[in-house]
Design goal:
With 259 residues, the chain is of the alpha/beta class. It has helices at residues 19-32, 57-67, 85-99, 113-119, 126-146, 167-174, 184-201, 205-208, 219-228, 246-258, and strands at residues 7-13, 36-39, 72-75, 78-79, 103-108, 157-160, 177-179, 210-215, 231-239.
Length: 259
């Protein structure tokens, strides 16, 4: 069990929708009380028509930064291979200022081959993509530190991934939030491995790194179990075109009842 406050996030998947519907969903989500609104960093839909409507993540985050007042915002997660790390850091710093200090910088090694092939990036291997993520982290941190004006706050870094040898080591070294993929048993097992890496690099990851997971369905079915396993950032994914937020509302109500 953790002492962190439970937070509910919405991942608005920017696919199969007009932007007006996305903008409306952001407004509704902030009004209903979610803590964080994410999008994702892809160039094509991940489900449904593979060539359906889709929008780019970071341009959208700049608009969300202006539209919203309270929620944190970010990409769950940014593919490290799509942008120069120094440029990405400066984009993050800029969106952080536009939002008044509400950005979460989500990062991952990347995996969706179509994005790479269609946009002219080298897909490489899982190992080379993870190596790129590791190499990018010092550059991102240095560029954030060098920016003028400095970020509004020390921008929280979220890293998504579950590879036990390499990815979790990067999480232990650099992340404030770890986004896990898998069920509660995977969360427990890999959370323990993360803490082993934390001890090796001299960080108390059990205290310093928030655990994040995707959730679905009724909160009564899985919410308490996930929180007991250490997860406190719980994210519901919703796709276009209509963005039904009834499940999100159920999780917000569950959060408020626990508080």
């Amino acid at each position: 069990m953790t002492d962190r406050a439970i937070r509910i996030a919405l991942q608005l998947q920017p696919q199969h929708a007009d932007y007006s519907a996305i903008r409306d969903a952001v407004l509704r989500a902030e009004d209903m009380g979610v803590d964080v609104i994410f999008n994702w960093d892809h160039f094509y839909p991940l489900s449904g028509d593979p060539d359906g409507k889709h929008f780019e993540a970071w341009t959208m985050l700049g608009a969300w930064a202006e539209q919203t007042e309270r929620v944190e915002i970010g990409a769950l997660v940014t593919g490290i291979g799509y942008r120069n790390p120094d440029l990405l850091a400066d984009m993050a710093r800029t969106v952080d200022h536009i939002s008044g200090g509400r950005l979460i910088l989500g990062l991952g090694a990347g995996w969706f081959e179509k994005d790479y092939d269609q946009f002219g990036y080298e897909f490489g291997t899982a190992g080379s993509r993870i190596a790129s993520l590791a190499a990018a982290m010092p550059r991102i941190k240095a560029r954030l530190a060098a920016g003028n004006p400095a970020p509004e706050r020390e921008i929280p870094i979220m890293i998504g991934g579950s590879g036990v040898k390499k990815t979790l080591r990067i999480v232990a070294e650099h992340a404030d939030i770890w986004h896990s993929f898998g069920d509660v048993d995977v969360l427990k097992t890999k959370s323990a491995i993360l803490d082993e890496h934390g001890a090796a690099v001299g960080r108390d990851t059990s205290a310093l790194v928030e655990r994040s997971v995707a959730v679905s369905g009724a909160p009564e079915a899985t919410g308490d179990v996930l929180v007991a396993a250490g997860a406190t950032l719980l994210t519901i994914g919703e796709s276009g075109p209509d963005y039904d937020l009834s499940t999100v509302q159920a999780w917000v109500d569950w959060r408020d009842e626990r508080r």
